[in-house]
Amino acid sequence: MSDFQNFIQGEWVASASTRPNLNPSNPSESLGNYAQADAKDVAHAVSAAKEASHAWSRSTPQQRFDVLDFIGAEILARKQELGMLLAREEGKILPEAIGEVGRAGYIFKFFAGEALRLGGQALASVRPNMEVLTTREAVGVVGLITPWNFPIAIPAWKAAPALACGNAVVLKPSELTPACAWALAEIVSRSGLPKGAFNLVMGDGLAGKTLVEHPDVDAISFTGSSNTGKLIAQHCALHLKKFQLEMGGKNPLLILDDADLNVAVECTVNGAFFSTGQRCTASSRTIVTEQIYDRFTEAVIARMQGLKVGAAIEASTHIGPVVNDTQLAKNLDYLKIAKDEGGNILCGGERLDGSGYFFSPALIANNNPQARLNQEEVFGPVTTLVKVKNFEEGLAVANATPYGLSGGICTTSLKYATQFRREMQAGMVMVNAPTAGVDYHVPFGGSKASSFGPREQGPMAVEFYTKVKTHYLA
Ligand code: NAD
């Protein structure tokens, strides 16, 4: 079996311990042993990044463009192969996995262009004979901490803008999905990027914590659970480090009586269950007005019965496995909680036979907006069904959680669609589209407890990865 090492200062570096990377469709298959960085490895990576950061911050836009364009082009050229790797390590079905790899490639291409457009402003001064300019400078050494559910797209949407803005980075991917990050590092190693400007340290939460707490790390960009995000926020606030957090969601899809039934069913099934419901933007609450409720419920159940759960790389599979045994146990626990708090399990919610962590998508009726199933993130293919009287009640229920990542509505009414877009407390709103599934060239992020700090992706990503300097010239 192969061993995969960390990438530090332009070299492959062995660590004292490794961890097998198991395929959730068949956990007896390992994709290899992946390095587990200890404090010494993390310190080595941070010092390499620090050493490289000044020179890279002085690189020309052309150098940055060439590096990022190379990385993007190679990812796109290898998207079938890398998609297969992603499907095997994370459990996303092959078309979704290939789609994610494509997204990562286009993100690098997009930020190659942004490197050329990074600029400031020239302003008239309020004082005579004075000129004012603003410029953007790199922040320095940026730690990138990523979750398992988008194992190549999230590292891409952090590393690409960070490098485009002239920062040196240390990437700490999830311990559950290091293979995609390793493959990205291998491509970066041949891209012409100076040694030390990109470092990969694979490992668990302790490696992440060590990275966050290293005094030479200037900023942390984190995506993951709210609990981890809060710990990172506490440390960064205390030490005045710049930080950005993308965390959980409890995203609602509101279905009104006047919705196109087919559109509503497809949006629900796609948003709640595709990618095994393991998307931060997944629709985990389906809020339905009373006139359409029965027809809609019947149609969703019929559609769910046609979904095949199985191995990620099999062509007939619609829903792949849950990522690991811990997440599977969490899904099953939530099904028990659902029953205990009076929810009616209308479909699915069971552990399925087979070699992998297979779980049938679950639809649970529970009209109490304060029920745990309507408040807490499950992070599995589970959605609740909440019956409401009308749009106004539906909107109030949609907004009644601490989260605010994504929210959707299915309606043919322009009036309600417009009102929903205005009043939904979320960073992303969808009309007649699933709550999950977004473009790569526009801002991504939430409000309330889902996100903290400047937006990721799109042109706004530079807000986090740069600091502004104001120049006065007399
Ligand atoms: P997690 O918080 O357990 O882990 C995320 C990353 O943080 C991993 O790399 C982990 O090793 C590291 N980590 C763990 N403890 C740490 C610590 N104390 N200090 C520093 N790093 C630490 O999350 P997860 O289970 O990998 O991912 C699932 C979560 O991610 C869900 O809550 C989901 O909603 C969220 N998510 C959010 C978005 C978004 O953009 N809002 C996108 C994808 C996933």
Radius of gyration: 23 Å
Largest sheet: spatial strand order = 15-16-17-14-13-19-20
The proportion of residues forming helix, as a percent range, comes to 25-40%
> What molecules are bound to this protein?
nicotinamide-adenine-dinucleotide
Structural class: alpha/beta
Structural domain count? 2
CATH architecture of the largest domain: 3-Layer(aba) Sandwich
In total, how many beta strands? 23
State the shape. globular
Mean pLDDT: 98
For the record, the CATH class of the largest domain is Alpha Beta
* Biggest sheet character: 7 strands, mixed
Here the CATH topology of the largest domain equals Aldehyde Dehydrogenase, Chain A, domain 1
Number of distinct helices: 14
Low-confidence stretches: none
Portion in beta strands: 15-25%
Distance from first to last alpha carbon: 66 Å
Structure description:
This protein has 2 domains: 3-247 and 450-473, 3-Layer(aba) Sandwich (Aldehyde Dehydrogenase, Chain A, domain 1); 251-431, 3-Layer(aba) Sandwich (Aldehyde Dehydrogenase, Chain A, domain 2), CATH 3.40.309. The longest helix has 24 residues, at 94-117. The model has no long low-confidence stretch (mean pLDDT 98). By secondary structure, it is an alpha/beta fold. The protein is globular. The chain has 14 helices and 23 strands. A 7-stranded mixed sheet has the order 15-16-17-14-13-19-20, sandwiched between helices. A 6-stranded mixed sheet has the order 10-9-8-11-12-22, with helices on both faces. Helix 4 (94-117) packs parallel to helix 5 (153-164) and helix 9 crosses helix 10. The protein has helices at residues 39-57, 61-77, 79-90, 94-117, 153-164, 178-188, 205-213, 226-238, 261-273, 290-305, 325-340, 391-398, 414-423, 462-465, and strands at 3-4, 6-8, 11-13, 17-23, 26-36, 121-124, 131-138, 141-145, 168-172, 198-200, 219-223, 242-246, 251-255, 283-289, 344-347, 362-365, 382-388, 403-404, 406-410, 428-431, 447-448, 451-452, 466-473. Nicotinamide-adenine-dinucleotide (NAD) is lined by residues 145-150, 172, 174-175, 204-205, 208-209, 212, 223-225, 228, 231-232, 246-249, 280, 377, 379, 405, 450.
